[in-house]
């Protein structure tokens, strides 16, 4: 399904409703495209996890694969929402056994009412690795003090912990001959990234180990040079497909 989200529609929502009990490997393919002069930023919400996206001035987009639980039950509702102020092209498709996929109805809503996501059995087959992307390509301008970027929030207990990787890049067209420092604070944790002359990317790592849902870590970033950043939490050996971390701005 490929649809257009016009500027007059703030949020485009897709509901996935199994028509019967299903068992197998299922996922939702999501593609978000921003046209030249279109949206500069967007947010998509999946299973309670909000993720921030940033788009460049020319044609750009974001593609991901969202996993579903192995057991789908009739009456479950899985909700995917994309929000932006400008036009977007959104593509969604359900992957899995063809016969089973045909039993899942996809409903499209424009600025519809909030729908809860029901996950009857969120477990996976054994332990698997997952990624919780929090932000992609967001621009931070130079500032004397670190700038708040929101807060990272735990969506459920995950005492084994996930590794947050903050990736910093030079903005397009910036001078690569100069080096600079990037200060990152996640809650009470502090990290420092050094962008060496000629280097285009640097990573800073943090470990997050929430004992319960609702734990938060304030995120601030700062440098005397402009930079872009992306953030992803990697979960190893998890037995639940649901996201464990979200970025709240």
The CATH class of the largest domain is: Mainly Beta
CATH topology of the largest domain: Jelly Rolls
Q: Specify the number of helices.
A: 1
Residue runs with pLDDT of under 50 for 5 or more positions: none
Assembly state: single chain
Task: Tell me the CATH architecture of the largest domain.
Answer: Sandwich
Q: Order of strands in the sheet with the most strands?
A: 11-2-9-5-6-12-19-14-17
Approximate shape: globular
**Helix and strand run:** EEEEEEEEEEHEEEEEEEEEE
Could you give a short account of the major beta sheet? 9 strands, mixed
Number of domains: 2
Mean pLDDT: 87
The number of distinct β-strands equals 20
| Alpha-beta classification | mainly beta
Work out the helicity level: under 10%
What is the gyration radius calculated from CA atoms?
19 Å
Strand content: over 45%
Measured distance between first and last alpha carbons: 29 Å
Protein traits:
Jelly Rolls, five-stranded antiparallel sheet, 2% helix, nine-stranded mixed sheet, mainly beta, 1 helix, 20 strands, single chain, 249 residues
Give your account of this protein's structure:
The chain has 249 residues and is mainly β. The chain has two domains: 1-121, Jelly Rolls (Sandwich); 122-249, Jelly Rolls (Sandwich). Helices cover 2% and strands 59% of the residues. The chain has one helix and 20 strands. It has one helix at 98-101; strands at 2-5, 11-18, 22-23, 27-34, 41-46, 49-54, 60-67, 71-72, 78-83, 88-95, 104-110, 123-140, 147-154, 162-169, 180-186, 189-195, 201-208, 216-222, 227-240, 245-248. The protein has a nine-stranded mixed beta sheet, with no helix packed on it. It has a five-stranded antiparallel beta sheet with strand order 16-15-18-13-20, with no helix packed on it. It has a four-stranded antiparallel beta sheet with strand order 1-10-4-7, with no helix packed on it. The longest helix has 4 residues, at 98-101. The radius of gyration is 19 Å and the shape is globular. The chain starts with a strand and ends with a strand. The model has no long low-confidence stretch (mean pLDDT 87).
């Amino acid at each position: 399904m490929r649809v257009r989200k016009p500027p007059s529609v703030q949020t485009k929502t897709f509901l996935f409703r199994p028509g019967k009990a299903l068992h197998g490997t299922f996922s939702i393919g999501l593609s978000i495209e921003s046209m030249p002069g279109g949206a500069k930023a967007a947010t998509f919400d999946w299973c309670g996890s909000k993720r921030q996206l940033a788009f460049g001035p020319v044609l750009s987009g974001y593609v991901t694969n969202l996993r579903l639980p192995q057991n789908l039950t009739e009456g479950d509702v899985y909700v995917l929402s994309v929000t932006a102020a400008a036009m977007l092209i959104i593509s969604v498709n359900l992957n899995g056994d063809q016969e089973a996929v045909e039993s899942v109805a996809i409903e499209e809503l424009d600025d519809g009412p909030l729908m809860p996501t029901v996950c009857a059995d969120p477990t996976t087959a054994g332990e698997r690795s997952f990624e919780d992307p929090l932000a992609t390509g967001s621009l931070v301008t130079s500032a004397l003090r670190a700038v708040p970027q929101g807060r990272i929030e735990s969506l459920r207990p995950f005492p084994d912990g996930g590794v947050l990787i903050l990736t910093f890049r030079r903005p397009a067209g910036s001078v690569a001959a100069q080096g600079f420092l990037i200060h990152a604070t996640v809650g009470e944790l502090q990290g420092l990234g050094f962008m060496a002359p000629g280097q285009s990317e640097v990573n800073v790592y943090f470990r997050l180990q929430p004992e319960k849902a609702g734990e938060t870590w304030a995120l601030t970033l700062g440098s005397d040079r402009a930079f872009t950043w992306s953030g992803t939490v990697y979960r190893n050996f998890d037995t639940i497909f649901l996201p464990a971390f979200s970025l709240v701005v």
